[in-house]
Amino acid sequence: MRNQLLSGHHKATLILCTPALIKSITPRLGRVLGPRGLMPSERRGTVTDDIATYIRRLQGTNEWKADKTGTIRSPVAKVGSYPVSMLCFMLKWPLDELLGR
What we know:
It is built from 4 helices and 2 strands, in the order αααββα.
């Protein structure tokens, strides 16, 4: 998996790590994962001993990412997988959450 991450073949959106592994992966993967915003960190909570609890906590949530200019990016759905009315709802929901409606 490390080689797939380094070569860019694996398109991960979140990487979890245990505290025992973080020091060994940092030198090899830090240069690749860091600029992508995927490097596990204790501050973000992605370095944990209890990975199963972290995954359970993530279910049903949506991760929002913003760049330096304040542009928010979030996956919505695969085009063609849902009817148009459902896609409209999925696009409108994050906006309503941001605006507090």
